[in-house]
Write a structure and sequence with these properties.
Radius of gyration: 41 Å
Number of domains: 4
CATH class of the largest domain: Mainly Beta
Shape: elongated
Number of strands: 38
Strand content: over 45%
Number of helices: 3
């Protein structure tokens, strides 16, 4: 049972720029391999084209016969596909001025010789014109015919295109100078219909286990069944690959701890241009005791062991030296440093516990656009309740709404510090993360000054939920001879202010306030 296979061929005929050089004729065809045609591929449309570039010479007559044949008889049958065009098989097309009424107003005809699909088949176009074929039009397709080949799956053969001499007056004719060919004639191609794919991977892995801190290097190897050059590219997943050697490289980052990546590498035949096969594998990033960007390395000696645990315990509970980077010891990414970090460090090093995820200021003080916090406020002097709504307008602004009065703070991030600027009450605020019991800092703009102290790590519960990781922060402030105040708040890193008690005195007019804020609802936007 023969299989009808589509074949697309392209014949380019170009004219040199010098009047001393005749037509330069080059025969080409779309290929799946170097000098090979694979009709087994879904090629469509099935068009054989003759493209010519007349450049700076005008032609008044042309006889162009081309023969299609198989030199060894390995291909005996082709089919001329009916496209509703010209000729006996309605498979021939004339265009771009070669059609009737175009350049060749004196003679314009198509002559077919054994145009029945039994090779060899010959097509001859004859043209003559009073004005002729003008120069300077550039390369265009002027003659087309639709062709398909019958060949068995797994079969192969040769097909050639050559000049023809079907007999006077249809022998090859151009006006002087005579044409020359850029490649040897006849121009032949190996036609093959493989029973499998054209690209094979020789060493495609199933999975890699990669340890953070170490690079994965692996040479992926593929080949064309025809021996053509092969190129590689990553279709999906991380890493990089050398396009020509197949050398794959991937170095996991700190954020890749414990993740599994699906990787797809494609290989293609250079002569075809398309990806012919893929190699699919997985990469699992294995946790290790190598410090993830220094995470957990309290001593900063590029190691992770019992010495880091001892260092952190001494700092937290025995007045030992502070770590050079607080965030390197915030191993649970909570925005705080406490016994929970000690526990996680011990579990990770000795009990195959959870991965170390060092914190950052972005997680400690949430202010993503769309987040909001609702507080019930009690004024003990006036003995009344009202509601305060705080909303993150964008990543740089937070709005306070108090009894329909609105205040907007600018959120400024400077390293480990968050500053909230203001133009009116309530006063400016400042936080330095991670929070650690005993830590203190101050704010001073020359007029308004405020001192903060982290006095304890103490969980708290409100109508909004339980917050076991809250810290108590006390503060005292003043503005010269005009005002003074003090405050106490429970702040939960990653959530925000939970409870706020504040007293403020107006030293000029003699009034003061006493407020108690409680978080009753909140939403943290992703």
């Amino acid at each position: 049972m023969f299989r009808k296979i589509a074949l697309t061929m392209l014949t380019i005929i170009s004219l040199a720029n010098s009047a001393l050089v005749g037509m330069t004729i080059e025969m080409t065809a779309p290929q799946i391999g170097c000098d090979r045609i694979e009709p087994g591929m879904p090629i469509s449309p099935v068009i054989f084209s003759i493209a010519m570039d007349n450049n700076d010479l005008m032609r008044s007559q042309i006889v162009l016969p081309l023969k299609i044949y198989s030199p060894d008889g390995s291909i005996t049958q082709v089919h001329h596909i009916d496209r509703g065009w010209l000729g006996t098989t309605h498979s021939i097309n004339l265009l771009n001025g070669f059609e009737p009424g175009g350049f060749w107003d004196l003679t314009n005809q198509i002559n077919e010789f054994s145009w029945d699909g039994n090779l060899p088949d010959t097509l001859c176009f004859t043209g003559a014109g009073s004005a002729g074929w003008p120069s300077g039009l550039g390369a265009k397709s002027y003659i087309q015919f639709a062709l398909a080949i019958d060949i068995e799956p797994g079969g192969e053969g040769y097909i050639c295109v050559d000049t023809a001499s079907p007999g006077a007056p249809y022998n090859w004719l151009f006006e002087d100078p005579a044409p020359t060919f850029s490649t040897d004639m006849p121009r032949c191609w190996h036609v093959t219909v493989p029973t499998c794919c054209g690209i094979n991977f020789w060493n495609c892995p199933a999975q890699f286990g990669v340890t953070y801190g170490k690079a994965l290097n692996y040479g992926i190897s593929a080949g064309s069944i025809y021996g053509d050059p092969v190129y590689y590219e990553i279709l999906n997943g991380p890493g990089s690959i050398n396009r020509w050697t197949g050398s794959y490289n991937f170095t996991p980052s700190c954020d890749d701890y414990g993740k599994t990546f699906d990787v797809s590498v494609g290989a293609g035949d250079v002569c075809v241009g398309d990806i012919g096969a893929t190699c699919d594998f997985q990469i699992y990033v294995v946790p290790s005791t190598y410090p993830c960007e220094g995470c957990g390395d309290a001593k900063q000696d590029n190691a992770l062991n019992i010495l880091d645990i001892s260092f952190l315990i001494n700092f937290l509970y025995k007045s030992g030296p502070a770590p050079a980077s607080y965030y390197r010891v915030d191993v649970d990414n909570s925005g705080a440093v406490n016994i929970l970090d000690v526990s996680r460090l011990i579990n990770f090093i000795y009990r195959n516990g959870e991965y170390l995820r060092c914190g950052s200021i972005g997680g400690a003080f949430p202010h993503t656009q769309g987040s909001w916090w609702q507080y019930e406020r009690y004024d003990s002097l006036q003995m009344k309740y009202d509601t305060i709504m705080i909303t993150a307008i964008d990543s740089n602004h937070i709005n306070y709404n108090l009894n329909n009065e609105s205040y907007t703070y600018t959120v400024e991030t400077l390293g480990d510090t968050i500053n909230l600027g203001y133009d009116a009450t309530p006063p400016a605020e400042k936080y330095i993360f991670p929070l650690i019991s005993g830590k203190s800092w101050q704010y001073d703009d020359g007029y308004f000054g405020k001192i903060y102290n982290v006095v304890a790590h103490d969980g708290i519960t409100t109508p909004a939920g339980d917050f076991p990781n809250a810290y108590i922060i006390t503060s005292q402030w003043g503005c010269g001879d005009e005002c003074a105040g003090n405050g106490k708040e429970w702040f939960a890193p990653g959530t925000g202010k939970i409870v706020n008690i504040r007293q403020e005195y107006d030293l000029m007019d003699g009034w003061y306030t006493n407020e108690f804020w409680t978080l009753i609802a909140y939403h943290l936007a992703p």
